[in-house]
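re: that chain from earlier
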Amino acid sequence: MTKRIAIGGDHAGVAYKEKLIQHLRSLGHEVKDFGPYSIDSVDYPDYVHPLCQGIEKGSFDCGIVLCGSGNGVAITANKHQGIRAALCWNEELAALSRQHNDANVLAIPARFISYELTENMCDIFLSTDFEGGRHSHRVQKIPCQ
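^ sequence. v structure.
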C-alpha cells in the first residue's frame, strides 16, 4: 500500500534522506521533502515542526526524520500531540514501534547506522500495521490532556 510520507531533519541526515526519497518513490510512495537540502549546519526544529504539522493536519500518513543521533528530531517531533515518533536503530524496533506504539514518525540516527539498515527499517516501518488490542488503550493515554 502506498503512503504519503513527509521526510526531513538536519544536515547530518541529508545524504541518507536524498537516497531514501529515491527509494521510497521507486516503491510508489508519495514523498514530500521538508529539507534541509544541503549539508550546511541548520536547526532541525525548523524542518521537523512543519513536517509534524502536516501529519497532524492529515496531509501525510507518516513521517521519517533524520539527524546525527536521531534524538533531536525525535524529541522535537514528540512535542506535537498528534505525533508518536520512535527512535529506532534496528529492524525489530522499527516493527515494534508500529505494532505496539502505533508510531507515525520514524526517527533515524544517521551517524550511527548504515544506509542499508536505514532503508530496511523504513520499509519495515511502512509495511507494519498497528496490532491494536491491548496496545490501543495505552496509545490513547499518550497525549497530554
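The domain at 4-140 is CATH 3.40.1400.10 (Ribose 5-phosphate Isomerase B; Chain: A,).
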